[in-house]
Structure formats: structure tokens, C-alpha cells
Amino acid sequence: MSLSSEVAVTDQGGPDETSEPGVIAIVAVVDGIDDNGVSWTEIADVYSYGSNGVGFHVPRPFNVGNLISLRLQLPHHLRCYDLDEDLYQIWGLVQSCYMSITADRAAYQVVAALVGKSPPASYASDPLQDYRVCGSGEDGLWKITESDQPFVPRSEPRYWEQIDAYLALVDDRGSTTVGEKTRTQNVSNGGALVVTTLNLKVGDRVKLISEEFDFSGLAVVCNTESLKGSYLNVNLEFVESKFPVEKLKPKEAVS
Questions:
Q1: Which uninterrupted H or E stretch holds 71?
Q2: What is the pTM of this model?
């Protein structure tokens, strides 16, 4: 069973800010295939949702890199299709899975990138095929491709390095919209932790730019944690680029 090795974050709790007025929470019906090829269905408590990503709690762990089918009452303004349907059926790619505590019970906190109405053709022949994000489509959903090997917990080091950077939200057309100057709290070859006042949600697409390290990379928001005031801790996973950690000055890495 492959689980994300990213730093665990505090459960945010409470209504998600992407919700429509008066909506406290939504649930999702999640379907998948276990390692033995047996189909399963779980009812998930959704804690965060947007047009291209969802975060939810379930009683079982999921394999990072696997596809799952979701049916949920996503607000219509966040949908790419099925605007007249009660339930929005969409496929998601599991990006992370952590053990967490919610309402005094153990559960798994899962983040899934939304990828479309139908799975890739390769899914039919091998439902346990691993996939990875490889960009974003014109509809704002994530593009995926087959992965040559299963996901393994990240072994690359993270560095406590405060790097001045610019963080911008990327819209459905691939253009940057709002943005601000920020600073990383730690960084690795494949991701970063930043503090921001941008109203970011799980699954959002952002661009992180560092002039100092000649780096500009598209990233997906994997987790957020509310801080004092209007600040957020945001975990980013780079999609198409790798941060040049070799340019960092020698410094102790995060264990």
C-alpha cells in the first residue's frame, strides 16, 4: 500500500470556503479497485472541494497514483459538465493519503486531482495502472499519463530554505490571475511549503516563480492549513518541473 510521504497537516475542519452559501458539507460516493482486483465503495466526508480537486476523509487507505470514481453534489458553478444533474460523476487521481483524526475517530485524509468524465483507455485493461499528472487541459481539469512504476514514498530530502518567490493562481485557460510575493518554508525537488494569503483550495493550480533560482513551475495544491489572520500554509507538488535543489547552499535537510 503506497501512501504519500508529505508532511501531515492539521485537519482544517469546518465548512470549506469554496462552498455555496448555506452549504455546510457534502459527501461523495467513491468507487475503486483494491490490490486484489475487488471492487469497493466508500462514503466519504468531503472537507475541501474546487473545480479540479477534492479532499475527503474515508475509513480506508487509498493507493497514491490510482484512479477512483467519485459521485458528489459539487456546486454547479464548479462543474465542467453535467450541469443539470444532481450528482456530478468524475474520475479522480489519488495524490496523497494520510492517517488523521476527525471527530475523535481515525480516518484517512485523501486528496484527489479531478481528471475528467471518463478514465483513460488503459484503465479498462488494468484498473490498478498507476498514473501521474502531466499538465492541465483546456477545461481546467488535470491531464494524466501512465506511470512507468508505482508510487513510492518520497525519499528526496526537503530543505528548510526560505526562498523569495512569486505565487500565482492559474485559471482554467492556463493564465495566471491573482498572485503575490511569498517565501518558501521548505523546498524539495518535487514540491514546497509556502505561506500565503491567497484563497487557495485543494486541487488548485498555481505557478511558483523564483528569479534567484531561475525557476518557474506549475504546481497542484495538495493540502492547506489555516494560520493566524488570513494566512495559510500551503503544500505544493510540482507537476512539470523540478526545483533545482542542487543550487541551494549546503544545509541540513528535513528528515
A1: strand 67-72
A2: 0.63
